[in-house]
């Protein structure tokens, strides 16, 4: 018998681009049970849009992004129990609009845009060592790629490579 999927409690939005400003520090969430949006008091340490987020061992990670003038390689983590963002080890490469996922207690980051070039490189974060390291590059440059883990496989879906929509 197939188990029924549990409905999520909240939808979390971290940073992003708001019409009046290029990037924001604001975090908010949508509560499915109340059908309302709420602003989270703990803002990101830096303004960022084009970042990617994922959860590893209960902590939320905001990875890289663009602050309105510069793509960066910074990573911040938020422990929901203390509701505070802390800096984490930076990635090896600057990139925004990257795809991320978690597999085997590691965060994988692929593709992105560094402000002038689309990236085909990929990195992995090992929480135990606290380090990011490069892994073999993809065959094509990709940004805005959706990345997900299913049954111990990582899938990338859709993307933009700079010359045409792919």
From TrEMBL:
<protein>
    <submittedName>
        <fullName>Ring canal kelch-like protein</fullName>
    </submittedName>
</protein>
<dbReference type="InterPro" id="IPR015915">
    <property type="entry name" value="Kelch-typ_b-propeller"/>
</dbReference>
<keyword id="KW-0677">Repeat</keyword>
<dbReference type="InterPro" id="IPR006652">
    <property type="entry name" value="Kelch_1"/>
</dbReference>
<dbReference type="Pfam" id="PF01344">
    <property type="entry name" value="Kelch_1"/>
</dbReference>
<dbReference type="GO" id="GO:0016567">
    <property type="term" value="P:protein ubiquitination"/>
</dbReference>
<keyword id="KW-0880">Kelch repeat</keyword>
């Amino acid at each position: 018998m197939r188990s029924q999927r549990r409905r999520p409690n909240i939808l979390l939005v971290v940073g992003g681009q708001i019409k009046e400003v290029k990037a924001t520090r604001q975090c908010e969430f949508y509560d499915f049970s109340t059908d309302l949006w709420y602003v989270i008091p703990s803002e990101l340490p830096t303004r960022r849009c084009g970042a990617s987020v994922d959860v590893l061992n209960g902590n939320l990670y905001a990875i890289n992004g663009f602050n309105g003038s510069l793509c960066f390689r910074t990573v911040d983590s938020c422990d929901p129990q203390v509701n505070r963002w802390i800096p984490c080890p930076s990635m090896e490469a600057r990139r925004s609009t990257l795809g991320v996922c978690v597999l085997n207690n590691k965060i994988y980051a692929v593709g992105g845009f560094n402000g002038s070039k689309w990236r085909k490189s990929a990195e992995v974060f090992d929480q135990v060592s606290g380090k990011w390291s490069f892994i073999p590059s993809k065959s094509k440059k990709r940004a805005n790629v959706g990345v997900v883990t299913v049954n111990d496989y990582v899938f990338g879906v859709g993307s933009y490579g700079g010359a045409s929509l792919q």
